[in-house]
Amino acid sequence: MNTSNDNLMAALMEQMGGNNNPKMEMLAKILAQQNNQPQNTAQPQPANGDKYKGQARKLMALNKELKDKLLLLKKQKEQLLQYLDYFIEVNAVFSSAVGACECWGDDPQCEKCRGQGKPGAFAIQQEAFQYYIRPALKQQQGPEKEQLAQPPSSPFKGAR
Ligand SMILES: [Zn+2]
């Protein structure tokens, strides 16, 4: 309640003839309505503004979080691609060390070997053989072991 307005109204009503003047009663009603209106209409706007500011802040924080996650995923992807490049190269060199195709003869659709590139199918690459196979053969010397290792399961087996 606005007390200064109420005091003003009381003073006005006294001057204009008190509560018996119908014009003064109407003026009093109008003033009373105007007194209430600004409080009702002005308050929701700042409240909404605060709400939107809060939402905007939350969205900006979420946006930053997502950007950070995206950056991390990009870094992880780069690292995985580096690993993949490395293992593709190791596979190429290692398969050449035993005269195998890079698909190890497991891929019937392989353009190089049509699924015929098991170890020994091609000429052995000597440097790769010295690096990968010779040390393993040295360790293997001695009483012959007749164990045959099970090859790892091939991703091409479903295609046969
Ligand atoms: Zn092949």
Structure notes:
The chain is mainly alpha-helical. Helices cover 65% and strands 0% of the residues. Among the domains are: 1-40; 74-135, no CATH class. It is built from four helices and no strands. Zinc ion binds next to loops.
Largest sheet: none
Overall form = rod-shaped
Residue share in helix: 55-70%
What's the end-to-end separation, in Å?
Answer: 88 Å
As a whole number of angstroms, the C-alpha radius of gyration is: 44 Å
Number of helices: 4
What letter string, H or E per element, gives the SSE order?
HHHH
User: Would you tell me the structural class of the helices and strands?
Assistant: mainly alpha
Unreliable segments (pLDDT under 50, ≥5 consecutive)? none
Structural topology:
Elements: H1 3-16, H2 22-42, H3 44-97, H4 126-140
Bound molecules: zinc ion.
Briefly characterize the structure:
Helices cover about 65% and strands about 0% of the residues. The chain has about 160 residues and is mostly helical. The N and C termini lie far apart (about 90 Å).
Q: Keywords for this structure?
A:
160 residues; mainly alpha; 65% helix; 0% strand; rod-shaped; binds zinc ion
